[in-house]
Amino acid sequence: MQIDFLGAIEQISKEKGIDSDVLLESIETAMASAYKKKHGSSLNVRVSVERASGRAKVFAYKNAIDVVDDAYVEISIEDARKLNANYQIGDTVEIDVTPKNFGRIAAQNVRNVLVQKIREAERVIIYNKFLAQENEIVTGVVQRIDKKNIYIDLDKIEGILPTNEQIPKEEYQLHERLKVYITEVKKSPKGPQIMLSRTHPGLIKRLFEIEVPEIARGEVIIKSVAREAGFRTKIAVFSHDSGIDPVGACVGQKGLRVQEIVDELKGEKIDIIKWSNDPNDFISSALSPAKVLGVRIYEKERAARVIVADNQLSLAIGKEGQNARLAARLTGWKIDIKSQSQIEAMQNIPYLPGRSGIF
User: What does pTM read for this prediction?
Assistant: First the structure.
């Protein structure tokens, strides 16, 4: 175990991305254990691998004492002073006890320890890599499918896409490439556990960042997202630059940008609206594609009554209330939707939060 050994360590270090000193320290620990196993477990020893030559040496530590009772841990003061005249009783004496051919013999005992250390170090590297990618998108390949989970190959590790994070009715095929959102990275006895999602609103944000350069550059800002995965998403966008149309930037020429995202989400509908700090305008836009006739704001209740034409009522509410529900989530306001004829019939009835409508 000389220079060629150090070369092998350096090669492993580069290939695995593990600090060579970490590997050598593990080898030294394993060699010390191998020595104690053969020569006595009560020995206090350390192994040092010279970084220049690759030569391994074993050093024992013994207490200098007048009368030796246990030669494993004690040395007479006379023998200690033969090594160094300055030793005093009670001092710890370092002694070179390296046996012949120790490097070759010990190397046979450290292979498993080295393999284990490499695995541990790789797990740490993978954990740190994906921890830095929490709340980000990664692309993986469907590796395994069971009744509850989809296992996604993320290169050197599998991520888990649980049932409740899968888009309803979305069918997954083996070897299919998918964009997934990392919700959490956890440590486990078997290594890092990467939890994934296809339903998280953050997936929408990251997909738009990928497809819309203006968002990636910070020229267009995503203010809020409301999503019912697999069915419909509403996204509110804004730009401080009056020369940039935030909605147009997200839609793209001939709708190509938003279509890329719709395709990735297997046909999920996406409404893109312009954010406004005026709740009247924001709520009106959020109820798109319905056309709003008027909005009355109730600041104290953080609620709004919206008036639409009779023929727009079902469109404003949406199938099973979905459009109104998403608009409320997007804006952060409770929304009570009334048709023009309903309003005319209740002109003198005061607004009571929760009285009627969809929130």
Answer: 0.73
